[in-house]
Amino acid sequence: MRELVNIVGLERVVSDIGQEIESDYARWDEFDKSSRHAVHVRNGVIELMPTSDGKRYAFKYVTGHPNNTHKGLLTVVAFGVLADVDTGYPHLVAEMTFATALRTAAMSAIAARWLARTDSRTMAVIGAGAQSEFQVLAFHTMRGIKNFRLFDTDGAAARKLVHNIQALPQHDICLTPCKSIEMTVDGADVITTVTADKRKATVLMPKHVHPGVHINAVGGDCPGKTELHVDILLRPDAKIFVEYEPQTRLEGEIQQLDASSAVREFGDVVRGRVAGRESDLDVTIFDSVGFALEDFSTLRYLSRINQERGGQREYIDLIPELDDPKDLFGSLMGSRRGSRLSAVR
Amino acid sequence: MRELVNIVGLERVVSDIGQEIESDYARWDEFDKSSRHAVHVRNGVIELMPTSDGKRYAFKYVTGHPNNTHKGLLTVVAFGVLADVDTGYPHLVAEMTFATALRTAAMSAIAARWLARTDSRTMAVIGAGAQSEFQVLAFHTMRGIKNFRLFDTDGAAARKLVHNIQALPQHDICLTPCKSIEMTVDGADVITTVTADKRKATVLMPKHVHPGVHINAVGGDCPGKTELHVDILLRPDAKIFVEYEPQTRLEGEIQQLDASSAVREFGDVVRGRVAGRESDLDVTIFDSVGFALEDFSTLRYLSRINQERGGQREYIDLIPELDDPKDLFGSLMGSRRGSRLSAVR
Lengths: 345, 345
Prior knowledge:
homodimer; alpha/beta; five-stranded antiparallel beta sheet; 12 helices; disordered C terminus
């Protein structure tokens, strides 16, 4: 991924991934959909996210281990596999730790294209963890947002974000660290919550939300982990958008609501089946948890761009090659096709 | 796997895997269990089979594409990943096409240890596909069966099996190809059905089943695919054993029964919670579909034996190494820790 980003450029990679994701949501019906498979372990969670469009099959392995940084390890690591549906043979195994960060931000920016006010100029970013720079870059590149206001309780994390953004070649990004959430959301058209607390938190309170704002709720993404006060979700002017409803009922902000509460699937918005934002006064909420389709789109993109651009490739023996595919045992024992056929009457 | 089998020996590998599986079923309670995730595609099925014992996490990717052999490809291909639960980091990616064949046969032989009559001497094998030699080898090695009777409608498949078994160094295996299922099951103490038809077939009829026999039903392993006539399952003297009941209800022979019908989980037999065979006249049926625990046991074995015996290893960059795990973005952009920390106030 580092090499690919070097060759292609980060802005191009994130916006290309966004386009792939959007075009796949436009054919939402074609996908085999299921909630991700999660095993909750002592220190975190290990998940598998599979899907298929009938031509290709993809899955991602992804973890969440908040205490890993104490050991010098990553909180979230991921890899993915893309396979051919006709044969079941995998043809790409890809590191996806970076790609997950890129596709999550690309998804947020694509959702905002349909849900945020078109005159949005300022975004509040609450949380300066691993995902935050990617959100800033995606909203700058894909939505033209230039003013970012930042809050994190961890000063070192906020300084890391400021430094990383300053080091970018884009000089029209204005990033303002703020001392409180109130100051951060003041005048924001988009509010992105991207905290990592693994509990029901109320990062964003009703008083922080004004008519017309788009809330990009990224951090709440597993059972028992939320960021928005429930009264924000219950506002009469709020419209809630989700990726795949059954999974978001388990993992998203809408854990806090009745299972019958009204939500709209993003794929239906892209396909014109349900409305996105209907008025400049709507409060739109993208209750993002991350869906397998986004990884599918990303893996297909990585496979294509890697072929086109000559990215780094190595071949691994994941599936054995057999002289005779009907003779698994003989192949394991090293027998040869010719001698076998002639030896048997 | 070829190299490992060369170094360690096939008999040793299959019986070691059987021991690992049995010891894991003896701690059935410790495992996170779920039915496998299956995507049914045009030509077959693609499955993910995850489980964890709270220390290690494993999953297998496995396919079933019956028409693949026409293209010179394998019907079933598989690979697996073993990860550390504490960190979520994967530490083994292994080819499992051969390993799946080995562990399926090892599981059958282990189940027969608890379910077949101890004086079993003769096994009928119905079906001469990819799994059949492995079944013969496992029952010979692990159960001491020396007489095998074979039936397949495909003469070439039967000849392949005869040849492969004759090529083994074990000279005390007597394998008799038969012209009908009646002749094959005549006098058999164990009947192994291992056909690959992807439909509700009735390979084994009630007239083929006599008191005291153990039926090792391996071939029926997905929705709509069965091998036994339902009246065999309904015999008053029949006792049905399954790996993980929720999955077998979907995939096993017991698809043909009411969801409330009595079955016994094998883990409960190994732990002494329920009886296995209770009389020499019982008809025991192991309704095998393959459960994630068996792949978990196999991957752990492969990991250990590969370390001990110096099997082939290659290292792949599946997870990036970061100077600062809290700085994903900076790492992607190639910034250096030293310069970053000094550049920010």
